[in-house]
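Known limitations

Structure tokens in this collection are predictions and should be treated as such. Users comparing against experimental data should check residue numbering before alignment. To illustrate the layout, the record for ABC transporter ATP-binding protein is reproduced below. The input appears on top and the generated tokens appear beneath it.
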Amino acid sequence: MTSSPIELAQVSKSFGAVQALRGVSLTVAPGEMFGLIGHNGAGKSTLFKLMLGLLPATSGTVRVQGVDTASPEFRQVRRRIGYLPESFVTYDNLTGLEVLHLFADLKHVPRSACAGVLEQVGMSLAAGRRVHTYSKGMRQRLGFAQALLGDPDLIFLDEPTNGLDPEGIADFYRILREVRERGSTIVITSHILAEIQDRVDRLVIMHSGKIAEQGTLAQLRSRMVLPSQIVATLRPGTADQLQAALAPLDGPELRLDGAKATIACQSGEKMAVLAVLAKLALDVTIHEPTLEQLFLGHGGAHVHAH
Ligand SMILES: Nc1ncnc2c1ncn2[C@@H]1O[C@H](COP(=O)(O)OP(=O)(O)OP(=O)(O)O)[C@@H](O)[C@H]1O
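Generated tokens:
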């Protein structure tokens, strides 16, 4: 039986009186791209540290690659995990290649592997330059390169695109896609929700040390009370017809603004509303709630489930 790369069962972690994690259970499947979202202080970094075996859980079990992170055997597993911390700090006076050599030695990976990962992140030409001459994006790529050393099956990326410009972010995800194609399991955290919502297979929303929600984006959407917005462009005379046709439906809310009609409706009513609009031959655009809206819709505290 192949075990899941990550299995957490009822994990809690306290720092004195502070309960950073409270009964967190989750499973990440092999090859999955898994997102971790949460406000500052929600417990994401603590969860990462537990999964990397850097901190012990107060209660519950954390198994990574089938091995309990509290067991002595986990040291071996950790070497096979790639990790890009939130702020990748390194020796500025060394060249990129020299920095990677250090990491290769720590990970017991042959130094000959360094050139390949530098190429993978598009840093071959800068490999001989000292790190203090690098831009923020180049430093981050170097950090990414060290996480990729040794071809890890499991990669943790803590806010990897923090501080990158849009081009740097696009580059980062292009490289990440290539890494994914090799079948690695990836856990990624981000504050930029819109950025990861279409890039992860599943995600967890954390709040106050607990999992507030988890699932695919579609599952989260269907569980939340957040209406889709359907915008129709009216032709003369159609406003009244639209109002009359929607009236029996009860649920959808219509707002009229000149030639623009905005209808807010729950997912179960969407097809009925679209049928009305199609009958009137109106042009429509559908705006689904973004993850950002779902997340902010929590008000930081509650999940409004059906
Ligand atoms: N070493 C520590 N000692 C005491 N309290 C801690 C420690 N590490 C974390 N905490 C507390 O645990 C809670 C969760 O912190 P954590 O850093 O995991 O949150 P986070 O979601 O990663 O936040 P951010 O997005 O700001 O990085 C916070 O209340 C924090 O103050």
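For this record: Residues 15, 18, 20, 38, 40-46 surround adenosine-5'-triphosphate (CB under 6 Å). Residues 227-288 form a domain with the Alpha-Beta Plaits fold (CATH 3.30.70.120). Please report discrepancies through the issue tracker.
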